[in-house]
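Hi,

I'm pasting everything inline rather than attaching a file, because the server keeps stripping attachments. The sequence lines come first, and each chain or strand is labelled.
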Amino acid sequence: MTDMAGTTPAVDMREINKSFGAIQALHNVNFRLMPGEILGLVGDNSAGKSTLVKILSGAYQRDSGQIFVAGKEVHFKSPQESRDMGIEMIYQDFALCGNLDVAANMFLGRWPRKGIFIDRRRMEADAEAVLDRLKVKVNSVRQRVESLSGGRQQSVAIARAISFDPKVIILDEPTANLSVMATQQLLDTMLELKSQGVAQVIISHRLQDIFEVGDRVMVLKRGAAVGERLVKDSSQDEVLRIIVQGDGAEEALSA
Amino acid sequence: MADTGVTRLPGAHGGPGGTLTGFMRTWEFGLLVFMAATYLAGVMINPKFFGDATALFSILRDAARFGVIAVGMTFVIVNKDLDLSVGSTMGLSAAMFALAFDRGFYDLQAWQAVLVAVAFGTGIGLVNGVLVTFLRVPAFIATLTMLFIGRGLILGLTSGRNVAFDADKVDGPLFFLIGQTNALGFNNQIIILALVATLGGIVLARTRWGYETYATGGNIQAAGYAGINTHWVRIRAFLFSSWAATLAGLMLASQDTGATSQAGVGAELIVIASVIVGGASILGGRGRVIGSVLGAILLVLIDRVLREGFPIARIVKIGDREIEILSMARLPPGAVPAFLGMILVAAVLIEPWILRRKLIQRFVARLRGRPMPMVEIESVAIESMQTTGTSLTATEFHARGMTKLFTYRESAAVVFVIVLWLIGFFLRPDFWGNLDNSFNLLLAFTEIGIMAVGMAYVLGNGDIDLSVGAVLALTGSTAAFLMKKADMAPMIAALLAFSVGTMAGVINGFLSTKAKLPAFVATLGMFYMARGFGAWLSGGRQLSQFPPQFNLIGRKFYQVLDYWGIPPAPDSAFYALSRAVSTQTLILAVLAVVAGVVLWRTTIGYMVKATGGNRRAAEYAGINTDRVRFLSLVFVAMCASLAGLINIAWFRSFGPQAGAFRELDVIASVIIGGGSIFGGFGSVFGALAGAAVITLLRALLSLQVITKTGSFVMPQTWVNVAIGLVLIFAVLADIWFRQEKIHRRLPFRRRAKHPTGGDT
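And the predicted assembly:
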């Protein structure tokens, strides 16, 4: 595999295999993500999308294959290690503590301190700065997250991811729990991040979202990569057909 | 369970094929083998007792009552609920029957008296059911409170006396037949157990009601979507267990022709352990009536083997003659509940750690060189069941100025403190406000306050510790034992006792994190173990006359300074202060300030609240939630140990009742003070304000009120009933007002149905 146009891929996963007992969840999957690219990962349930990104985020370990992050081979044993390499995952349910306020959630587990005490002032200022960068407005960073709407909660989750200054963000079904307006806001946020050079993987069942902001679509079926299209050269119908039927040639390869 | 015949999970539907080899692979068969082994052990230990057929019948007779309750409890546990109130329901049933039937009280006919008992049982079952379903109170906290309220009612109604009645009233003999031995040579209660077990077994395994129960326990949300009225299914199960407990109480009243205020104490421990040993899963969805009944017989058998003792011969030298003396070596009081507590914990661990992991099958497969069977998919972490039913979102208040004060979760407690104090002042202006009473209040406050500080951390984590009162007693009795029986120096005794109490917390923490038990199950086991070991050490007696040096912990600060030879100058302000303030108050003040600041504004405090708010999110963020929870459980045990040392120093003696009902006070304190039973909230300041509410309430309830015609004081036996009610109302208020504000939406609830059961 050679680099496209001389740039190093943000993530390059090669020949990934993973099985749970007798079930082969991933079969020789190749996955590549360029800096600043938005990649849509689609497929039926149990196609292996979640398994693939969980391997990337360190929640699962691969059975075989190689992973390169920014050209460097990595072996993640925990989500913490992938985070250290600049990979952030945003979970479907946002993984926020509803009882804590916005600022405390954005710095969950790494609250800034002054001496032995939490430095509230710095934490709130930093939180506001990150939210500004995302162009997201919340009334106050002292608001409890529970009291926010679903879209705002997601903004907090994204803001938290951003505050790590990641190179790659993985969004797992980000629009599943959102209203139409919140979805539009999320897509705007994603484009904003793209303009800042962050590579993003979006797992979604909603093809229209991927086609609105995505650069490339990758289709998984029964644990194998069965097709790949550039958004500008393809249509939702074509991708849907690949999801259902597979892409002739590659299907034969993986079978 | 050392038996390798246990290779099959007890499921909803009978054994495979009904063949003999099929039967031999069931859990129930394993129980029978284990039972036979236990009985043989009993025969070896004490051939005089166990070698006789009457022994078998007497064990079955006593097991009958527990077996009957276990049948009802199986429905509750299969539903993924728990009913801790059955022991007190059983006692209440016996007491109600006795009061209604006895000539000295209401002198009703036996059938009328039975109706009274059944009415009470129905009431308890309904209240339990409604609390856990419609009102979303976690089952263990609702039924635990009901346990305490029931016990209080029994004491209040009987005034702690035993009621023994004549069996010769008109239809009395018919009723008393229940508890008698029949012509075939065994007790009629065994027939009742057989009938109840058959009926319960058929209902659970073969009827729609039973299938609904398994569905609700397996996945309440799916069952609800499928059109099953899960509220009714769960209420029904609570009714069954209450009725079964009522029946057991009547059986006891019939057998003993009387009732004691201690009837049924601890029965819930034996019954729950029976059902779990019988193959039911604390995670719900699994369990069979026959297993539960066999479990009850096995546990009563173990209980009896432990209690019976074994004959020993001692050689005593008198002068130069050796005389052999035969006597019975018995386990000391407290040992039995301690063992039963351990059995409960062990039984709960079997399911997730041995059955789901298929340890036995894997072992057998390895021996035979066959491929390993697949481990069952790890179910959702079992500790998540603690939050069954609810993870409501707290509502944000928007307010400014003065009204903003009331948006703090602690404000209710502060208002209550002021109101309660004013009520006391209004009732007894001559006495309430004076210094003596105020300092007495402060001392009573200290014990609850110290434990509430620790409990604020544990509840903040979303855990609970039901064993604080028992750990208090354990530490107290250990210290008393070491000073009195082992003649240790006070300092060393206090340190050792403190370590013992801390160990209890370490075990709690280990069980709730590494062994992944729900904290309430782990600490419920510890509740019995710690109290049992405490009673064991003190021999169930009062221990007093400690070295004066030790008692200083419970004295005025002045006496401590005086003891060390540095009394303050007699006319200084410090002198006045040190004469007014007790050592324990100082200890509490230091503890509260340090722990309060740590919880409020340090990383540790934020980690506690993040863990309680959303454990998974906290873990993703790199917080070691297991360590946070472990340390909190250890910390609360240290607080309880400290309270135990202070308790015996203050009273200058250890009493077996030390710390009884304290878990109720402490949990209520934290919740009144803004904590949530579901975790994520609470502060030390709030917990202390809540402790002040409880202290004032207890003082008010025992206040002698002067009226025009004389004076009135509430009978003290009723105080615990009142405190139990307060705890339930505090939990309800937390769920319904602080968290949900659902009272505002009541008219709309049918239309905009709130999603129940947030799957955290």
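Chain B has two domains: 20-308, 401-693+722-748.

If the labels don't parse on your end, tell me and I'll reformat.
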